[in-house]
Amino acid sequence: MFLKNIDLTTALRPSYLPDEDLLFVQDNVGLYEGKYKLPNHQNGQVYLTSHRICYVDKAEPRRHSVAIDLKDVERYEFYAGFLKSSAKITLIPKASKRSSLQSRSPGLGSIPSRSGNGTPITSSQRTDSPYRAPSVEQPSASTATWVCTICSFSNPVPSNFDPSTATAHTPLPPCLACGIKPTLAHVLKATISNATSRQPGGGGSGQPALYTPLPIRPRPLSELSAAQVNTTPPPQAVSDNSTPRPSSDPDASFECPRCTFLNHPSLLSCEICGAPLISHDLPSQLTQSSSSQSGRRTEADSPGPFLNPSLSSISSQGVDSNTAAENVKLSFRGGGDKIFYERLKGSMTQRKWLLHGAPPIPKSSPRSDDSLPTATGTMGNDPSLPAGGGDRTNRRAGIAGLEHRNKTMRRNNELVIGSAFEDLEALMASAKEIVALAENFARQVKTGSGPGGNENAALLAESASQLGLIATKDIVGNSSSGGGDSLYLSELARTLAEFLSDDARGVLKRAGGIMSLVDLWAVFNRARGGVELVSPADFEKAANLWEKLGLPVRLRTFKSGVKVVQGSDRTDEHTVKALLGWLRDLHEIPPDLEGTERAVTWDWRMFGRGVTARDAAERFGWSIGVAEEELEMAEEKGVLCREESIEGLTFWENFIDTGEGKRYKKETESERITRALKESGFL
Amino acid sequence: MLSSAQQQHQQPFSFPREYFFPPFFTRQTNLTTHHAQLVKWSALVLAYCRHHRIFKLFLSYSGAVAPIYSSSTTPSKTPTDQQDPSEPGELFNNRKINRRLSLADIREVIDFLRKDGRAEYIYKSNGTTTTNMDTTAAPPPDGGGDVVWIFWRTPEEWAAVIEAWVEETGQRGSVLTLYELTQGEATRGTEFHGLDSDLLQKALATVVKRGKAQIFGQEDSQGVKFF
């Protein structure tokens, strides 16, 4: 299914994949499938992550929460809303998804071919509009180019260059005209801007059909990965939207995607500008399958709108009910649509999901350091070659060798970090590497020093994992319901709840299941690694929301006004029971009055012994303040009683109130009556 | 010669369990527990005073409490106190577990007893009740409000006991001296033998009020006649 059910965390938020980053949250969003509202999916929060769009229903989050994988999204369109209809974002699934979805009428699987009216995949279409195709294709089919900063010659981006995996060590070819190597950031920017400049054109322009990207990619992922390995037509791999543009018609001239020169069809690269002319011959298998699909499609589909204007116009006008059923629309009733759209655009461009399966970061050999600053990349720099050279320089014996290796490694790290921060795009590209580095540092710290180091390491690792996983104010959209902060606060509350209930982190467990709000605030902000700190006021407000949101933690206010955080399953009764059990155990153990010369004077077998807040704190792992409050709570419940002596305040099992206290209420009542009678003069 | 009080005196008072419970000597903050604590303490005070036939409690400065016997008429009893050194102050001061009840808390217990009509402060300014106080053993000079009647039997109850005895022995209508009532050979073995004279006065006053008796005579040689 295009819409997948998802797992929610304890805090009723989608549980993220390993590398998934939260980008945006917006509440009060409804889902449409085609024209129709999806029942039970009309009010919820939408989480945009780097991999998915998750919808979490407000009323029944466990049952009605769904997600859409961004990798399954073919296109997305923006509708700004008109009068009473709210702004919407339409997500159109990829062909393979759709065909697999529509089992009852497989012919529908060919929708892409219809949408790709300009793409001469099927013979019928080709004959329909042989001349139209090039003009349509022109902006989208062009491969990414980078303009040399020295001679301003526009070079093609190498075929195996993937912006999402490229690092400083990726070999880059020099400029074809002047032979100067480009910087990685430069090429990255070129690729990304190339990809982005094409995408919004599809939805937003006045003539959508003409600029719609035409991604005919029945096996999008496999093909892409294949392209990375293969040396097939280079530009294909660069951007997934660049479409193979077959023109098997021998008479048709082939228009250069870059300079629009009409080349002879048999040419493989443009005569004028040298841009590769791609997709000359499609695999016959593909051509066949699509043509057979289109044949069936004409039966299943209404023949009228064969040359459809565009998908967007179909879905919005509802001409084609089949496609309408395919689309998923997000209706932003509470605003936030624009930011969502921007972020969606960004994440679709970055395609982080590819990173997930990406090969590990290449181990930088010490030798490559020299070539690093000026982005590597002559032919001789092929990563496979220098292995021997690196080994050679590395082959130093003994401590000197180790030292040297450390030194080079440090230098290498320095360079990686330096280049990462050069440019934001570049940083995004090397994010994975940076994270790996951070983890590496953490490991070093851990092995390097003793117990103190461990804490630091944990902190560091924590901060690495925290990068981007936490709701910040700019991630969260404006709330619909009044005060603009309420969505932020509820997100913060959820984040906190997750933070607390995360077993791996075990914040609460370490604190004995209860910790003061102030402590939590400190821990939480420290875990954020010094960025996006939460103000105490927001923090408290968020904590107050826990109960309302039904989260598994609760805020408790003690008599003294101290606020503590606790799992919601931990009630006072639990605590009291634990305390009592402990005190009963003390009947068996002789009290240890270390240091004091006084003997145990009371009958400890009968009474046990008094415990101080410090004892309780030690026993249960609470902080002293919390222990004090818990003991007083138990005293308040009449389970414990206090003793003030020179050693301070201690608490004992309550042997004083053995039933006498129960009459207290009754007596006070009768007392009150007699007093009232006396005052009124009857007695 | 041993009075009945002294006979009772010989077997030690068995303190309740709470007396050895350290927190029992700390004022509890929980209202319910505190109430239970007061109930237990007042029961303990009454039982202790009954056991030792203490009619007046002396709340000392330090919180230690010396029981005061009705020794104005029998000064020979004071030495018996001194024979048992553990006894004075024993009630509110548990030497065994090294805990004592503070004076403020003792007063709270006394106040609790007063609400029940089981205690009453003896004020020095009140000449009628403290006439003999000066002669009692070792009261500190500023003992005002420091001495308390502990009514483990209220004056009315005492009066009833005496009345019953008079009835039983057929002495209705005859005049009995107060000394004869509390110290005489005839009353040996009765509960009110050795009763504090002030308390006896209080008790007899209630009977007089009811018109069932009459008190004659001077201060130190008073007599009473039951009708």
TrEMBL record, chain A:
<dbReference type="InterPro" id="IPR036388">
    <property type="entry name" value="WH-like_DNA-bd_sf"/>
</dbReference>
<keyword id="KW-0967">Endosome</keyword>
<keyword id="KW-0813">Transport</keyword>
<comment type="subunit">
    <text>Component of the endosomal sorting complex required for transport II (ESCRT-II).</text>
</comment>
<feature type="region of interest" description="Disordered">
    <location>
        <begin position="100"/>
        <end position="137"/>
    </location>
</feature>
<keyword id="KW-0175">Coiled coil</keyword>
<protein>
    <recommendedName>
        <fullName>Vacuolar protein-sorting-associated protein 36</fullName>
    </recommendedName>
</protein>
<dbReference type="GO" id="GO:0032266">
    <property type="term" value="F:phosphatidylinositol-3-phosphate binding"/>
</dbReference>
<feature type="domain" description="GLUE N-terminal">
    <location>
        <begin position="6"/>
        <end position="360"/>
    </location>
</feature>
<keyword id="KW-0653">Protein transport</keyword>
<keyword id="KW-0963">Cytoplasm</keyword>
<keyword id="KW-0479">Metal-binding</keyword>
<dbReference type="Pfam" id="PF16988">
    <property type="entry name" value="Vps36-NZF-N"/>
</dbReference>
<feature type="region of interest" description="Disordered">
    <location>
        <begin position="356"/>
        <end position="394"/>
    </location>
</feature>
<dbReference type="InterPro" id="IPR001876">
    <property type="entry name" value="Znf_RanBP2"/>
</dbReference>
<dbReference type="InterPro" id="IPR040608">
    <property type="entry name" value="Snf8/Vps36"/>
</dbReference>
<feature type="region of interest" description="Disordered">
    <location>
        <begin position="195"/>
        <end position="217"/>
    </location>
</feature>
<dbReference type="GO" id="GO:0043328">
    <property type="term" value="P:protein transport to vacuole involved in ubiquitin-dependent protein catabolic process via the multivesicular body sorting pathway"/>
</dbReference>
<dbReference type="InterPro" id="IPR036443">
    <property type="entry name" value="Znf_RanBP2_sf"/>
</dbReference>
<dbReference type="InterPro" id="IPR011993">
    <property type="entry name" value="PH-like_dom_sf"/>
</dbReference>
<dbReference type="Pfam" id="PF11605">
    <property type="entry name" value="Vps36_ESCRT-II"/>
</dbReference>
<dbReference type="GO" id="GO:0008270">
    <property type="term" value="F:zinc ion binding"/>
</dbReference>
From TrEMBL, chain B:
<dbReference type="GO" id="GO:0042803">
    <property type="term" value="F:protein homodimerization activity"/>
</dbReference>
<feature type="compositionally biased region" description="Low complexity">
    <location>
        <begin position="71"/>
        <end position="80"/>
    </location>
</feature>
<dbReference type="InterPro" id="IPR014041">
    <property type="entry name" value="ESCRT-II_cplx_Vps25-sub_N"/>
</dbReference>
<dbReference type="InterPro" id="IPR036388">
    <property type="entry name" value="WH-like_DNA-bd_sf"/>
</dbReference>
<dbReference type="GO" id="GO:0016236">
    <property type="term" value="P:macroautophagy"/>
</dbReference>
<comment type="similarity">
    <text>Belongs to the VPS25 family.</text>
</comment>
<keyword id="KW-0653">Protein transport</keyword>
<dbReference type="GO" id="GO:0000814">
    <property type="term" value="C:ESCRT II complex"/>
</dbReference>
<dbReference type="GO" id="GO:0005198">
    <property type="term" value="F:structural molecule activity"/>
</dbReference>
<feature type="region of interest" description="Disordered">
    <location>
        <begin position="71"/>
        <end position="92"/>
    </location>
</feature>
<dbReference type="InterPro" id="IPR036390">
    <property type="entry name" value="WH_DNA-bd_sf"/>
</dbReference>
<dbReference type="Pfam" id="PF05871">
    <property type="entry name" value="ESCRT-II"/>
</dbReference>
<keyword id="KW-0813">Transport</keyword>
<protein>
    <recommendedName>
        <fullName>ESCRT-II complex subunit VPS25</fullName>
    </recommendedName>
</protein>
<dbReference type="GO" id="GO:0043328">
    <property type="term" value="P:protein transport to vacuole involved in ubiquitin-dependent protein catabolic process via the multivesicular body sorting pathway"/>
</dbReference>
<dbReference type="InterPro" id="IPR008570">
    <property type="entry name" value="ESCRT-II_cplx_Vps25-sub"/>
</dbReference>
